[in-house]
Amino acid sequence: MKKIVILGAGTAGTIVANRFKRLLDFGRWEVTLVDPDPIHYYQPGFLFIPFRMYTPKDVIKPKRDFIDPPLRFIQSKVEEIDAEHRRVHLADGSVLPYDFLIIATGVDIYPEETPGMLDGEWGKTIHSFYTLPTSLALRDTLRSWKGGRLVVNVVDNPIKCPVAPLEFLMLADWYFHQQGMRDRVEIIYATPLSGAFTKPTASKLLGELLESKNIKVEPDFMIERVDPDARKIVSYDEREIEYDLLVTIPLNKGAEVIGKSGLGNELNLVPVDPHTLRAKAHPNIFVLGDASDAPASKAGATAHFSIDLFTEHFLDYVETGELPPYFDGHANCFIETGFGKGLMIDFNYTQEPLPGRYPLPGIGPLTLLQESEFNHWGKLMFHWMYWHILLRGMELPLPATMSMAGKWKV
Amino acid sequence: MPTRVIAGKTVEVDAEGFMVNPNEWNEAIAIELAKEEGIEELTPEHWKVINFCRQSAGATGKAPTLRTITAGTGISTKELFALFPKGPAKKVARIAGLGKPEGCV
Ligand SMILES: Cc1cc2nc3c(=O)[nH]c(=O)nc-3n(C[C@H](O)[C@H](O)[C@H](O)COP(=O)(O)OP(=O)(O)OC[C@H]3O[C@@H](n4cnc5c(N)ncnc54)[C@H](O)[C@@H]3O)c2cc1C
């Protein structure tokens, strides 16, 4: 009996487990998932909660709905990965040996890494929306907010869903219009990047979109600390921005167990070969989803594309020990832009996002880097596909590697 | 790839002005690139950071992030911002002849 242990049953862990279910002969293989949390969260939905577009019941389901026999599920925290002896130690005291280990423990927010952030104003004038409780607290604050200066700040990169802060800004613009108070709100985006986004074309087009919505960008802002009493954020080069309401994307780090087990970098991300997602230090450990240091977008869509290709090559690898460089870093994301519209970007390790049409060149129906109502419906449809198709490990009719057809240079 | 002449030497650069081939780099190039970034004189502290970044990139194949630099040199983030104003990780990568640091996708 060969044993596969999957750490973390979030987006990546659940998808890969359900792929294994179709792929493997369970007379010869055993697949075990470990996760302490019985709930599966649809994290993209956290963005909509502060604006009351979604309620908690839209974003949570029991993990058990997606994990059936012959898959085994253990509800417990992983305390240590002993890569040398090929086994993991769980919080409930049990020890799981493995032949292949899949690390899918994702990343989480660490507000305690920024001085001042948790000092008395967290959940009051300082908020986030990257977890269910923080998005609910922000919803409650927004409900009675009288207006003033809203500052959105990203502490450092990488973060999961790098477009989520931009979406939050544009939805906030729409929401305050809707509430009849946009003229009483100033919106500022303080980012450690030199512009609205990372790659040049998208940064320019998204920057112009923010400007057209009267959202100001403060670039190269690397936050050193929050002064919760004076209500200002201070950067390392001593710029200060005052706020009435601060919405932060705190430092994103991998799970503590990664660092503790000596498998991670300074952000507890596991170093991997970006084209195979195999751990550099251990040939029988793969890292899927957000938990690795691969320079791909940390997004559910990326996880899905890479898992498509990983499972295609897995059995060959078991047999021959050989792996081709199958993954190109393909990512695509819907970007909500408010007022019932959205846009979409499609890119990989080497090709930056460009305008065009997707998935059918010249036709779409989705438009790349251009607002349309259809893209907004695409994002809402993705919600349904996530629960019913993606997590269950079924194929989407989309190619897993990126194509240049249908894109144009600007 | 476009090329340009820095400190009398022709080197390959990318669209954002980062050198493509770290082997084409030398100290005279660093001094000139630093001036372009508004740093008139490279002090021993600057060199400590530049040398660390070149070593780190030699080992990993990519320019280090701010966190890697602070952990590796013992120089605090605050001091790094004083040495290389605005975006230290990006600035030092350019001066050290390395590609643009990843990590922000
Ligand atoms: C606000 C927001 C908006 C987003 N929008 C989008 C979007 O529009 N499109 C998109 O594609 N992506 C989006 N994402 C990103 C997407 O949700 C993540 O990229 C995706 O969930 C990553 O999957 P993962 O399996 O790597 O991690 P996760 O799904 O986060 O799962 C990690 C799992 O590991 C478990 N775990 C952690 N530590 C341990 C431990 N010690 N032992 C055992 N288990 C452990 C956790 O309980 C969790 O279940 C968004 C994210 C956020 C926060």
What is the structure about, briefly put?
The complex is a heterodimer of chains A (410) and B (105). Chain A has 410 residues and is an alpha/beta fold.
Q: In words, what does this structure look like?
A:
The complex is a heterodimer of chains A (410) and B (105). By secondary structure, chain A is of the alpha/beta class. Chain A folds into 3 domains: 2-43 and 57-108 and 253-320, FAD/NAD(P)-binding domain (3-Layer(bba) Sandwich), CATH 3.50.50.60; 110-251, FAD/NAD(P)-binding domain (3-Layer(bba) Sandwich); 331-390, no CATH class. Chain A has 8 helices and 24 strands. Chain A has helices at residues 11-23, 56-59, 132-143, 164-178, 200-212, 256-260, 300-320, 373-390, and strands at 2-7, 29-34, 39-41, 60-62, 72-74, 78-82, 87-90, 95-97, 100-103, 107-110, 126-127, 148-154, 185-190, 215-218, 223-227, 232-235, 240-242, 245-249, 251-254, 285-287, 331-338, 341-347, 356-360, 364-368. In chain A, the strands form 8 sheets. Chain A has a 5-stranded parallel beta sheet with strand order 5-2-1-9-20, with helices on one face. The longest helix of chain A has 21 residues, at 300-320. Chain A is globular, with a radius of gyration of 21 Å. In chain B, 48% of the residues lie in helices and 8% in strands. Chain B is mostly helical and 105 residues long. Chain B has one domain (3-95). Chain B has helices at 27-36, 44-60, 66-73, 77-83, 88-95, and strands at residues 3-6, 9-12. In chain B, strands 1-2 form a two-stranded antiparallel ribbon. In chain B, a hairpin with a 2-residue loop joins strand 1 (3-6) and strand 2. The longest helix of chain B is centred in the middle third of the chain and has 17 residues, at 44-60. The two termini of chain B are 22 Å apart. Chains A and B meet through loops of A and helix 3 and helix 4 of B. Chain A: It holds the Pfam family Pyr_redox_2. Chain A: Residues 3-127 form the FAD/NAD(P)-binding domain. Chain A: GO terms for molecular function: oxidoreductase activity. Chain A: This is Oxidoreductase.
